[in-house]
Amino acid sequence: MEYLLHILILIGIYVILSVSLNLIAGHTGLLSIAHAAFYGVGGYVAALMALKFNSPFLVNIVCAIVLSGLLGALVGIPSLRIRDDYFVIATFAFQVIAFSVLNNWVSFTGGPMGLPGIPQPTIFGLQVSSQLGFLVLVGVFCALTLWVIHRIVRSPFGRVLKAIREDEVFAQAAGKNVAAYKVLVFVIGAGMAAVAGVMYAHYISFIDPTSFTVMESIFILSIVIIGGAGSLWGPVVGAVVLVVLPELLRFVGLPSSVAANVRQIIYGGLLVAFMMWRPRGFLGEYAFQGKEARE
Amino acid sequence: MSEAILKVTGLSKSFDGVRALSDLSCDLCRGEILGLIGPNGAGKTTLFNVVTGFIAPEGGKVSLKSTDITGLAPHRLANRGIARTFQDLRLIRQLSALDNALLSFRDQPGERLGNVFFRARRGREHERQNRQEAIRLLEDAGIAEKADDPAEDLSYGQQKLLSLVCCLAARAEVVLLDEPVAGIAPEMKEKILGMIRDLRDNGKSVVLIEHDLDAVMQTCDRVVFMDAGAKVSEGTPQEVRNDPKVIEAYID
User: Fold this and answer.
1) Taking the domain B1-81+172-252, which CATH number applies?
2) 3-state secondary structure of B188
3) Domain layout of chain B by residue ranges
4) Which of A23, A148, A159 should we substitute to test contact with B (largest number of B Cβ atoms within 10 Å)?
5) Cα angle A58-A62-A67, degrees, rounded to a multiple of 5
6) Could you give the CA distance from residue B50 to residue A14 in angstroms, rounded to a whole number?
7) Which ipTM did the prediction report?
8) In this predicted structure, what is the pLDDT of residue B48?
9) Can you give the pLDDT at residue A289?
């Protein structure tokens, strides 16, 4: 039972991460591999605030969103001026820098030792101490994230995002400030990733930089692609599949040292298979291809 | 002739040493259809791209209603009342014809993020009005029955009509049309040319790039002939047609 709840909580965290990346990558067509960095910012902000000031959970979450959003703007404004492949490289660079900072600023982040002993969250004086309580908390934030994304995507604002994804020139000629839209979307996505980070930090009660690597970014992107970019429920399906699948390996009886490697192979294999035979994922409406291929 | 609404003076632009525009000056008067003709590579589309802000000129000036608009970003120019179509028909192919038209309205408060959450009613109200207007425009263009189909499922001619509908939805004063009737069946062509004349009759100013000389002769009030980035001849369709320099260029 405990194990099942653990898996459900993890799925919840990855739903928040992948749904928010989907807004950036799936709906707006900006292939970012910096999502784990914003996830990490959220996690570290929450951990440091909880450890140093013993601040309440909701304050941590607001601070994490604001800081991560600001960082999103800081990264987004210069890197969104360049397009396609170059943008991917820019986000990759930021991801690497973010990891190095977390890993090397030992006095502040604890470096590779991480930050242990993050307290359980307290909301309006109520301490969330059971796993079930935590699942409810994650569920609430999942629902909130999905609702926000749903509102954005179904609105005229969301229609502009689709136009930008499909043809920036058309969007500009129709009077849309493409650069501003991109930065806004990047900031929203970064803020939401931070929410997932806060959840993770308080849940596991320990964080270290290895949870926020490039591999993690690519994992989140895989969820989006396999689930279906540009659809509301695609990443939810993707998160369930990609979190549950490696867990099944345990029941096959693979020793854990082998299972970890097999996991990577499965992710890689799945990604290649989907790119070749089902580029739109399970539920997606958008396939990542070169712009030339689509035109 | 009434005053110039759009004025370009001394525009220059070269690509890798090839002069696409060389000291080009030209006026568009309020309420006229100006034809822009000339051989391929004469710089006609480059002129459109400069006027709509997609390409920065190396020299010269563009002004709209005597305000300098040189070098403004494309979306700013679009919001100042310049609408355009593209030679290669840029539409959002995955979105419905109706959504393409809706995207072209310039003043939708629902496109601002704050209004998505805090003043959603205003956005919805506006959307409802825009939708009615868009459907009326699609009806006038005769493609209303395709309103909910993805733009890519429309025939080539219908897509050209749709891009014109998008310009109408923009309620722009200046409309730049890049080859609106190229490769179109004759009856569709009449329809499109009729819509262009309606635009003028509603007080809009239109520039028309077109290789189909018959279409140009019967639609335009004034014609400019361009070659190698410069204006070679200018006048009524008849005058330009009979200009020896034009005849020579076409025989070449």
Assistant:
1) 3.40.50.300
2) helix
3) 1-81+172-252, 94-170
4) A159
5) 145
6) 46
7) 0.91
8) 94
9) 61
Cβ–Cβ below 8 Å for B92 and A156: no
> Got the DSSP string for A206-237?
EE-GGGGSHHHHHHHHHHHHHH-TT-SSHHHH
pLDDT of A294 above 60 = no
Partners of B93 on chain A (C-beta within 8 Å) are 166
Please give the residue of chain A at the shortest CA–CA distance from B166: A174
CA dist A135 and A141 (Å) reads 10
Give the residue-averaged pLDDT of B8-19: 89
In a mutational test of the B interface, the residue from A172, A285, A294 whose CB has the highest number of chain B CBs within 10 Å is A172
Exposed (0-12), middle (13-18) or buried (19+): which is A248, by Cβ within 10 Å? Answer: exposed
Distance (Å) from the alpha carbon of B54 to chain A's nearest alpha carbon:
9
CA distances from B81 to A82, B67, B101 (A): 28, 13, 16
Q: Which single residue is written with the structure tokens 């499109």?
A: B192
Q: What is the bridge-based pairing of β-strands A122-123 and B174-178? A: unpaired
- Token readout for B56 is 């920065």
Residue identified by tokens 């014609």 is B223
